């Protein structure tokens, strides 16, 4: 049987040994799991949208399902022209070669070069000159000078997604071999490489900065704790919790990306913060011991003193981080969910591990000695009779007296800051563009600039035009093309559109719709061309025909379409059974008819190309396209196009929706964090006014920073958005610890002024240490090349340093002022602990 726990020790000794020894096993397991999670990270921007969002459903069901070209790559190099035969050699080699692709598949499904398209056009359209053919390709396959050319690659989805980084490396290596040019002269851009570039840059930054971050935080720990064993103990526990964050991502099968992987570093610094506070309570408990006392009871006494404030501090931090879980953006939601879960488990772990180690190996250097002040920031307040005057000469006491003398200006300035900077928040704007995620000197952005200057815009706005089968089955394709032609002409005149690509680029000019003999002959000839080239237009991904829901399911591959997953089995069953009286079967047939009417028809694609170099308002641009489409519908009423459906999707609408979501996520998550934390403070402090006053020093840092961002017109990205709720949750920690010591002093009978001075002397050092470790430690990631991580680290560091001012300046000033009377309570409550 295990030996019984001694009443004055922390846990049973066998359990303590298991915790200490098991930490090594856990660390090894967590390291492996976190490494596996990093291997399957993906940064495809389309995956950042919530699955149920209408924009993503439109993108997958109305565009990808019918044209299967959601991703592509544009390739060119220095000196690449229409006469460059290396284009054809490279195109053939990339499609034929399998490289290291999984299951023996090629990385690229098909290619299209400027030279091959010109040749195909001249094959379909007799007597088409080279110059006329080039006219059709300007802005998307050939430059304005009619010479600069490119190669367009469509990835093989299964092989590409299995290993996108390997596919890009294979592509670049092959281009180097064929062109004999250095990579600096090779330009590769397009939606398919965006996620690869994000992953590569963020991983490189993590690998470079993480060791420096860990060493820097360890250095700060040595400076703060001034004891190598204490610093290494906290560092070890923080390392375990850091790997725990990645482990949770792996075993829960969460979507892992460069943003969600940041939760490991955040959990690391928050573990250090909590552990430093725990060590502070350990030292204070030791300082109150008397000669002859049993020091074996110190860990248990520390636990009893620290469990409430440390748990409450962790709880409010979890509320702040967890509020991000309501975000519609997948990376932010993943970050909030798993960072808060890791912090919850990590808080339990650092209590168990640190106190078990201290029970087995106490820090004897901190044991009290006769006439020896152990802590330069401590006084002997705890050893004086209640209400007795405190010794002078202590730094924090002098600091507190300065705040006392300036309590009214400081309090007034705090409230004015809230009011003034709150006006700037209404001017906040968001940005989620691909180019906003990477540094300006990134190679992929340089490639974008070169290709857009030489060829044309690379960001697509895709317009899907559906002619319903029920209304248009007896209408000729030529009538549909005339309407598509009217759409293309109108969209061409938009200011920021570099090119409009459609099936018309690959067909002869449309004949007149008059009844003249020549026009009739031309229409008959073109209809013959259309009949012969329908499969070719389909292969070019600019036309598709869907006769029933089964065709739609086959196009969708049942993986992307939301509706297909529900109705696939029913549809197949109904097509193989006769109509009957069975109610279920009739319901299935009704569903088939309804979905046939919605999806069946002829689909045409118009692709508008926009340059990434222009600072455009994507919301206004998307609205302008939709307005143009409706205007064209009304202008062509004689063609009976009321039933024609337009869907506007692609990169620009998706980014525009992401920006809209991000702004509301910032508002909702901060309101939720503030509401939950304020409610917690009201319950803890047992008073509405107390709770709200205690929130003021924690709110004003976020208001100042985000108000300045709004006033200066600096856009908020994903990293910036996360800092508000996270910083609010962390900054409450200082408030809780300070109020804990104020409450302790008040219960001992001290006056309010002496109680605040007492609290400042007891916890200000720990508060300063933890805020410096969290704020300054995270500033290491400001050097990251992944912009959201850099901005998150910068703003979090700034807000936490401002919140330190709130905790040790603004809050004491409020407590010194007449408002501090609310924290004294009634005479009958003086002996009650209103923190419980």
Would you kindly provide a written description of the structure presented here, covering whatever features stand out?
By secondary structure, the chain is an alpha+beta fold. The chain contains 28 helices and 9 strands. Helix 13 packs across helix 27 and helix 26 (718-747) runs parallel beside helix 28 (787-816). The protein is elongated, with a radius of gyration of 33 Å. The relative contact order is 0.12.
For the structure shown, list the relevant keywords.
alpha+beta; elongated; 836 residues; four-stranded antiparallel β-sheet
Strand content: 5-15%
Report on the biggest sheet: 5 strands, antiparallel
Specify the helix fraction band.
55-70%
Low-confidence stretches: 371-393, 557-563, 565-572, 830-836
Cα-based radius of gyration, to the nearest Å: 33 Å
* Number of DSSP-assigned strands: 9
* 3D shape: elongated
Helical stretch tally: 28
> Roughly how many Å apart are the termini?
37 Å
The whole-number mean of residue pLDDT values reads 79
Assign the structural class, choosing from mainly alpha, mainly beta, alpha/beta, alpha+beta, or little secondary structure. alpha+beta
Secondary-structure topology with pairs:
Elements: H1 13-39, H2 54-67, E1 73-77, H3 86-96, E2 108-113, H4 114-124, H5 130-135, E3 151-155, H6 157-162, H7 164-179, E4 186-189, H8 191-225, H9 228-251, H10 263-287, H11 298-322, H12 330-360, H13 395-405, H14 407-425, H15 443-454, E5 459-468, H16 469-472, H17 477-492, E6 497-501, H18 517-532, H19 534-539, E7 543-546, H20 549-556, H21 562-576, H22 583-599, E8 601-610, H23 618-635, E9 645-650, H24 651-685, H25 688-712, H26 718-747, H27 752-778, H28 787-816
Antiparallel strand pairs: 1-3, 1-4, 2-3, 5-8, 5-9, 6-8, 7-8
Helix pairs in contact: 1-9, 1-12, 2-20, 3-7, 8-9, 8-10, 8-27, 9-10, 9-12, 10-11, 10-12, 10-27, 11-12, 11-24, 11-26, 13-27, 14-25, 14-28, 17-23, 20-21, 21-22, 23-24, 24-25, 24-26, 25-26, 25-28, 26-27, 26-28, 27-28
């Amino acid at each position: 049987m295990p030996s019984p726990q001694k009443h004055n020790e922390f846990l049973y000794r066998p359990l303590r040994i298991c915790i200490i020894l098991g930490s090594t096993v856990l660390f090894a397991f967590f390291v492996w799991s976190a490494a596996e999670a990093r291997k399957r990270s993906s940064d495809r921007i389309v995956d950042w949208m919530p699955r149920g969002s209408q924009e993503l459903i439109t993108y997958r069901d109305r565009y990808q399902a019918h044209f299967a070209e959601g991703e592509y790559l544009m390739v060119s190099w220095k000196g690449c022209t229409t006469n460059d035969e290396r284009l054809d050699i490279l195109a053939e080699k990339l499609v034929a070669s399998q490289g290291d692709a999984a299951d023996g598949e090629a990385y690229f499904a098909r290619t299209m070069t400027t030279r091959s398209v010109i040749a195909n056009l001249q094959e379909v359209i007799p007597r088409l000159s080279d110059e006329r053919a080039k006219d059709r390709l300007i802005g998307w396959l050939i430059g304005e000078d009619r010479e600069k050319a490119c190669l367009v690659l469509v990835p093989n989805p299964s092989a590409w997604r299995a290993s996108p980084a390997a596919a890009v490396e294979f592509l670049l290596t092959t281009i180097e071999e064929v062109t004999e040019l250095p990579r600096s002269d090779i330009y590769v851009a397009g939606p398919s490489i965006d996620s690869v570039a994000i992953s590569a840059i963020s991983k490189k930054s993590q690998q470079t900065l993480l060791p420096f971050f860990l060493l820097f935080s360890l250095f700060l720990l040595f400076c703060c704790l001034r004891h190598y064993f204490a610093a290494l103990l906290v560092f070890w526990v923080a390392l375990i919790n850091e790997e725990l964050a990645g482990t949770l991502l792996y075993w829960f099968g969460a979507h892992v990306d460069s943003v969600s992987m940041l939760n490991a570093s955040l959990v690391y610094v928050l573990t250090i913060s909590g552990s430093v506070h725990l060590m502070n309570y350990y030292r204070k408990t030791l300082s109150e011991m008397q000669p002859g006392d049993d020091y074996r009871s110190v860990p248990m006494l520390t636990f009893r003193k620290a469990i409430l404030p440390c748990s409450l501090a962790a709880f409010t931090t979890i509320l702040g981080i967890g509020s991000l879980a309501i975000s519609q953006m997948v990376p932010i939601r993943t970050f909030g969910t798993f960072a808060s879960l890791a912090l919850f488990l990590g808080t339990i772990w650092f209590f168990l591990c640190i106190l078990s180690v201290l029970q087995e190996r106490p820090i004897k250097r901190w044991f009290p000695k006769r006439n020896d002040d152990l802590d330069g920031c401590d006084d002997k307040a705890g050893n004086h009779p209640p209400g007795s005057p405190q010794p002078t000469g202590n730094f924090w006491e002098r600091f507190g007296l300065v705040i006392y003398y300036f309590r009214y200006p400081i309090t007034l300035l705090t409230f004015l800051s809230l009011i003034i900077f709150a006006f700037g928040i209404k001017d906040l704007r968001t940005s989620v563009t691909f180019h906003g995620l990477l540094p300006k000197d990134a190679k992929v952005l340089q490639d974008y600039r070169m290709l857009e200057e030489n060829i044309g815009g690379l960001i697509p706005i895709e317009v899907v035009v559906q002619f319903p089968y029920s209304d248009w089955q007896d209408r000729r394709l030529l009538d549909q093309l005339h309407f598509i032609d009217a759409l293309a002409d109108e969209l061409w005149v938009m200011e920021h559109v570099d090119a409009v690509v459609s099936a018309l680029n690959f067909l002869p000019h449309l004949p007149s719709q008059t009844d003249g003999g020549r026009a009739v002959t031309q229409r008959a000839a073109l209809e013959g061309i259309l009949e012969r080239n329908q499969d070719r237009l389909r292969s070019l991904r600019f036309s598709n025909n869907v006769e029933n829901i089964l065709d739609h399911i086959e196009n969708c591959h049942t993986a992307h379409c939301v509706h297909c997953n529900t109705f696939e089995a029913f549809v197949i069953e109904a097509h193989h059974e006769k109509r009957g009286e069975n109610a279920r079967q009739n319901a299935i047939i009704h569903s088939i008819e309804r979905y046939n009417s919605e999806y069946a028809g002829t689909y045409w694609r118009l692709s508008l190309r926009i340059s990434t170099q222009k600072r455009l308002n994507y919301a206004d641009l998307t609205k302008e396209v939709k307005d143009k489409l409706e205007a064209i519908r009304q202008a062509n009423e004689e063609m009976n196009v009321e039933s024609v459906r337009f869907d506007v999707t692609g990169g620009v609408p998706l980014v525009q929706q992401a920006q809209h979501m991000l702004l509301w996520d910032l508002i909702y998550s901060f309101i939720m964090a503030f509401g939950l934390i304020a409610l917690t403070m009201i319950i803890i402090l047992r008073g509405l006014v107390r709770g709200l006053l205690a929130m003021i020093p924690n709110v004003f840092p976020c208001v100042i920073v985000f108000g300045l961002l709004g006033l200066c017109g600096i856009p908020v990205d994903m990293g910036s958005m996360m800092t508000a709720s996270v910083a609010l949750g962390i900054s409450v920690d200082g408030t809780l610890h300070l109020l804990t010591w104020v409450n302790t002093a008040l219960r001992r009978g001290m006056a309010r002024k002496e109680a605040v001075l007492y609290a400042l002397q007891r916890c200000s050092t720990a508060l300063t240490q933890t805020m410096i470790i969290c704020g300054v430690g995270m500033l290491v990631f400001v050097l990251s090349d992944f912009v959201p991580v850099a901005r998150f680290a910068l703003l979090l560091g700034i807000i936490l340093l401002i919140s330190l001012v709130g905790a040790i300046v603004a809050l004491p000033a409020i407590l010194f002022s007449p408002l501090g009377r609310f924290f004294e309570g009634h005479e009958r409550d003086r002996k009650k602990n209103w923190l419980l």
